[in-house]
Each structure stands twice: as structure tokens, then as C-alpha cells.
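Slide 14.
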Amino acid sequence: MKKLAGAVICIVFAVGAGNGFAQPLKRHTFEIGPEISYRVYKEPGVMKEEGWMYGLVGSYAYHNKLMLKVEGRGNFGKVDYSNSGNINNINDYVLEGRGLVGFDFLIAQVHSITPYIGVGYRYLNDDSSGRISTTGALGYERESNYLYSPIGLEINVQLGDRFYVKESMEFDYLWRGWQKSHLSDALPGFNDPTNTQKKGYGVRGYIGFLIVTKKIDFELGPFVTYWNIKKSDDETITYYGTPVDIGWEPKNNTTEIGFKITARF
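Slide 15: predicted structure.
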């Protein structure tokens, strides 16, 4: 997968090098708007959480052949936990920030291709502390942290005088993941172990339809995000300082399908 992503970027750079810039992109672009998505988190054979998320996305991009972009998103929702027992309406929120650098290749005045690479950070908080499942299990707060590098390709195609379609494809290489489990929420005396995840990846796809006006452009479209994370390192679980067990984060995957609408200035 990583080799394929690298090969695609190399090919695009080679093709684009032979095409001059026919028309510059907007030098400065600000974008902001709401999004809605349905997220499903699974630990196969162990548990599942799913629910609707609502949030806001925003970005700033600079184009001058070189592309520089910073973007962020935050969303909140309530998810339902199911295992041997159930807990409904658990508060969840996600914060994510990214910095990207790429190169714009303009072809035939109406098409642009932008390969990019960058660094991203994703934080998820899943808080079932104070909750009890239908089988009597005690809930606790979990914090998920991913540090990763996005490697992607964005393609813009003009459909008419004021209409464009944008497609983006991305591979996310996980550098490190950290999962902190606040076991002391369930039973005081337990420690709050942090498990390290060293292997995993993500993929993303988006199709947006852009309407251009004199002052503000509008873009809307569906997106999908998928994460696949391998089993974490082991950590010792203690009770008032005495080792009592070994804990780890099982392999897991997250699928998020959504829709966003943004205004572009």
C-alpha cells in the first residue's frame, strides 16, 4: 500500500513536469462548514460502538505552484456500546489537525492535480465513566491518540463555467497510537495504563461538487474514512501499586461515512 502511494505520486510529478501552468489557482483560500457522519468502531470478537457524529471542518490553503495547507475538524456525538452487555448514549468527541504540503499541476486550464504529504494528529475521547452496562460492567473514560502522515492526491475537474468536481484519495501511515484507559473511573485503586500502538494505517476518499460565485464558493459532498490498527503493546495493570494483570488494546477498525458542506472565501 505504501509503495503504491509512493508510485502514484512519482508518476503524477513526472506527468505534471511536462505541463506548464496555464492558470494559477486562488492564492489564498479559507474554508469552513458543518459535517455529519456515522461512525462504527469495532474490536472484532470483542465489542462494537456506533453512532452519529456532528461537527465543523475548516482549513486555510496557500497556492503558488507550491501548495501549503492547514486544516482541522471537530465533532461530537453519542454512541452505543455493545458486547456481552450494552451501554447507550455514550458521549464521544473527536479533534483532528493536519498540516500538508504539495505541488499543483494545472493541465488544459480546467484540470488540476495536487499530490501532497504531511503530518496529522487525531484525538478521540470516549467517556462512559459512571455508566453501568446491562450486565453490570462498569464504564470508564478512554482517550485515543494517533500521530500519522497523510499521503494523498487531489484532482479538480471543471464541469462548466461555475461548476467543478473534486476528488481526493489518501493513505494515512500511522507513526504511533496511544490509548489511555482510565480504569480508576470504574474502580478506585486501579492505575490508568497507556498502551502504545505501533502498526496501523488509514485510507480516505472524498468527492465534492464546487459551485463558484463572485464572492463565496460552496462545496458539498460525501466522504469516507477507514482506520485499521493492530494490537497494542502490553501494559501492567496495578491495584494500589500491586501488579494484578496485563492489559492491551485489541486490533480494531473504525469506519466513518459522512457528508459535509463548506463555504469557501
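Speaker note: Confidence is low (pLDDT under 50) at residues 4-24.
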